[in-house]
């Protein structure tokens, strides 16, 4: 349980303040929403984040997620599955969901307790950090830390994502964290990036 609490409290250090000491890519894909590839403390991070403007000065808000290159690779690998589900929702496909359940139709762990989800309740993609309440050790719940992209915004984001990979081909070499453990299940289980709440979170 201690690991779950630490995973919730210890947010990504690059989230706030958003330091621009090495932006390599920054593109707006929807009004006020940006895809940013930036360097912080010698490491590269990708922000999908909403920006605000005060007194003519642009600033990063808390609405967004911070991805490592490995997390972004996981998201990109799941784009086809997400798109297929969104297409089905657009066509009005009905899903049998048990009464009282609000679990998403699609949920994939990107890393570090950040999940990409698609639900019948909204037509778009939610990128959000999850946490595990101390009262139980199975069900995980979304936090306010994240960003929701409508289907239109999601499609625009994908265009910028392709542009990012074209301009920064080193991202294609990124390794998803679970691949770095050489099949060692115990090592994967003890990795907070791969398994922040224990195996039940996946």
Entry summary:
The protein is α+β, with helices and mostly antiparallel strands. The protein has helices at 2-9, 69-77, 79-90, 151-167, 185-190; strands spanning 25-30, 33-40, 43-54, 57-67, 106-111, 114-119, 122-131, 141-150. The chain has five helices and eight strands, in the order αββββααββββαα.
What do these coordinates show?
The chain is α+β, with helices and mostly antiparallel strands and 202 residues long. It has a single domain (2-201), classed as Transcriptional Coactivator Pc4, Chain A (Transcriptional Co-activator pc4, Chain A, Roll), CATH 2.30.31. The protein has 5 helices and 8 strands; from the N terminus they run αββββααββββαα. It has helices at residues 2-9, 69-77, 79-90, 151-167, 185-190; strands at residues 25-30, 33-40, 43-54, 57-67, 106-111, 114-119, 122-131, 141-150. The strands form 2 sheets. The chain has a 4-stranded antiparallel beta sheet. A hairpin with a 2-residue loop joins β5 and β6.
